[in-house]
Design goal:
single chain, flat
């Protein structure tokens, strides 16, 4: 099997680490993964991981994992003809918000829910005090938003590096803008709305912020994160499809190398088959062109043999006109009785 994962929870003597060895998953525990990466100003229920078959001793009081650091990496390893180990990597990291175990019959499971980018509360006990971030946006008149927002993130989130930062240079403060924000979601919502108010374009999406792969990814579509990622035909699981106007969704084998706001290119033409391959009817994708990633969801069940059980689902909006566009025109409604 070519699937691979690495899960780390906690630190010190009671840390828990589970990894599937490269090329041999016979001794690896089964894990279920559901991790979503999206803009911080959009409500998100967090990330979820379930581990099957852990020792029952790890459900005891010595393994209190609430408020402990967690990271989950996944993808593929060598072992299958089309597996690409270079695409695997960190999916998400943060602090455990909730954890609960079950021991029913012979099944022992551990469920972990966490928010990417979160930090542990201060103090001990059953109701520790939330640890406040110092989130102050000091955006002075005539200064670019990028400069002020970089300083805000470095001060408020020193543990999270800034990966990419591509926004319009026209986002300049018309007057002093000093804001105090309780959390990242409030900051992200304010930044998106104020950027839309400044540029005043109906097609401008505003500045979006996301934590992807343990780092901030910030952009507004005016200068998307340029990526050389080309989705190979064999990476796709099923065909892309429209889910909104100008927004498509496509599914690939689980991978961590494509980030939020990355520009990707779908396969441009028919698949080339060798002498030993049987040419089927689905030899090319219905969509072609370049797209910018707006949402990522990693879904996996390590031991489920279905190809759709270890995948990454991407939502992306079109950068250039692409084939496969929905039909234009209106839908006519027949008159009653006709």
């Amino acid at each position: 099997m070519g699937r691979w994962y690495s899960l780390s929870v906690g630190s010190g003597a009671n840390a828990i680490n589970y990894t599937s060895p490269d090329g041999d998953c016979s001794g690896a525990l089964n894990v279920e993964i559901d991790v979503t990466v999206m803009a911080n100003d959009v409500a998100n229920s967090g990330a979820y991981v379930r581990v099957w078959g852990i020792p029952s001793s790890q459900l005891g009081p010595n393994y209190n994992l609430i408020n402990k650091p967690i990271s989950i990496s996944a993808g593929m390893s060598a072992g299958l003809p089309l597996a690409k180990p270079a695409q695997r990597g960190l999916l998400a990291s943060g602090i455990v918000f909730q954890c609960f175990g079950n021991h029913i019959g012979l099944d022992v499971t551990l469920d972990l829910i966490f928010n990417p980018g979160s930090i542990a509360p201060q103090g001990t006990g059953s109701n520790p005090k939330p640890q406040a971030r110092n989130i102050v946006l000091n955006w002075q008149k005539g200064k670019p938003l990028q400069q002020a927002l970089q300083q805000t993130l470095k001060t408020g989130f020193p543990d999270i590096p800034i990966g990419t930062f591509n926004i319009s240079s026209q986002l300049v403060a018309p007057q002093d803008q000093i804001g105090y924000h309780a959390n990242l979601q409030q900051l992200a919502l304010y930044v998106r709305r104020v950027s839309q108010d400044i540029l005043k374009s109906t097609s401008y999406p505003g500045v979006s912020m996301a934590i992807n792969g343990g780092q901030f990814i910030i952009g507004d579509g005016t200068s998307p994160q340029q990526s050389n990622a080309t989705i190979a035909f064999e990476d796709l699981v099923g065909q892309p499809t429209w889910i909104e106007n100008t927004v498509i969704q496509f599914k690939t084998v689980m991978r961590a190398d494509i980030k939020f706001n990355d520009v990707v290119k779908l396969p441009p033409g028919p698949v080339t088959y060798g002498a030993n391959n049987y040419p089927g009817i689905n030899q090319q994708t219905l969509f072609q062109g370049t797209f910018t990633i707006s949402k990522i969801r990693h879904v996996g069940n390590f031991r489920q043999p279905d190809a759709a059980a270890w995948v990454t689902i991407f939502d992306a909006y079109a950068n250039t006109p692409a084939t496969g566009s929905p039909p234009q025109g209106s839908i006519s409604t027949p008159e009653p009785g006709n």
